Amino acid sequence: MQETSNAILKQIELVVLGKSHKCRLALTCILAQGHLLIEDLPGMGKTTLAHTLAETLNLSYQRTQFTSDLLPADIVGVSIFNTNNQAFELHKGPIFNQVILADEINRASPKTQSALLEAMEEKQVSIDGKTYELPDPFFVIATQNPLFHSGTYPLPESQLDRFMMRISLGFPDVDAEKSILLSSNHQNTNRVTIHNIINVEVLKEMQQKVQQVHASEAIIEYIIALCHVSRKNSYADNEIPSSNDIICNPLSPRAGKAILNAAKAWAFIDNRDYLLPDDIKAVFYWVCEHRLASDMIEQNSSISVSEQILKEVDVLNPLNR
């Protein structure tokens, strides 16, 4: 399976240049059966990464541009009356694909954003009182503009919590940007052709292997310790945190499961069937930072909330096994 993972990453990195770490995080999220949020400036390759992932994994894919006038029915579908058979028929929306790209999700109204909540958590949608199952596997890959951009609606914490990971691609380095510009040159015909590396059955098998990665009791206690530090020093706590405390949103049990599953996928890509503390540390920021921090929270430290929590837990309860 490691050869398969490497082949997938190799192809994605041929398209998304100079971002090998972010490509691995995106694959980790998919193998862990999570949804992915990509936040960055326009034109940084967010949509390209989502499209390449879907093509490489051979999954049905549809992109939906989120705008202020987009309605929930534009995503999930709508029942239309058929005069021939005198009955309502469901015209399915783009959400009935295995991968839906919610492009610029925070440009849509909160009502439209919430249309994804049931789908992301329960892999089903309710339309006109009826429940419809979504394809298996089912992934939401959403892109988000920075909140200081005009016409954006911040995602509520309940929706952010549905995304297993949030990543940001960032600017390419000089060599990568030169390759991007050369590939865009009209005289250059050497465009990358995306092939289907695996099929749905192989992807499901890989996801099952990820779930079989062993997590020792010490690893589970480590994850619990991380979650409890966030709850001790959160706005949800009854006590007012001191100025030296880490002030953050508390991590929910769903967040703890996301840390565990993402770490298992990270270890799986490394061809290991057991977890190490380093696996937790490798994914912790990307799984938890969007859950921990919000616009209401101002940090005076130069390091992120996630890094502060990791340091505190390592000092209080280090894993030496």
Count of runs of 4 or more consecutive helical residues? 13
Mean pLDDT: 85
Cα end-to-end separation: 27 Å
Structural class: alpha/beta
- Counting DSSP E segments of at least 2 residues, the number of strands comes to 9
The SSE order reads HHEHEHEEEHHEEEHEHHHHHH
The best one-word shape is globular
Give the low-confidence spans: none
Main sheet characteristics: 5 strands, parallel
Rg measurement, Å? 21 Å
Strand order, largest beta sheet: 2-5-8-1-9
The proportion of residues forming helix, as a percent range, comes to 40-55%
Report the portion of residues in β strands.
5-15%
Walk me through what this model shows.
The chain has helices at 2-15, 20-31, 46-56, 73-76, 110-113, 117-122, 157-160, 174-184, 200-211, 217-232, 253-269, 277-292, 305-316, and strands at 35-39, 61-65, 77-82, 87-92, 99-103, 124-127, 130-133, 139-144, 163-167. With 321 residues, it is α/β, with parallel strands linked by helices. The strands form 3 sheets. The protein has a 5-stranded parallel sheet. A hairpin with a 4-residue loop joins strand 3 and strand 4. It is globular.
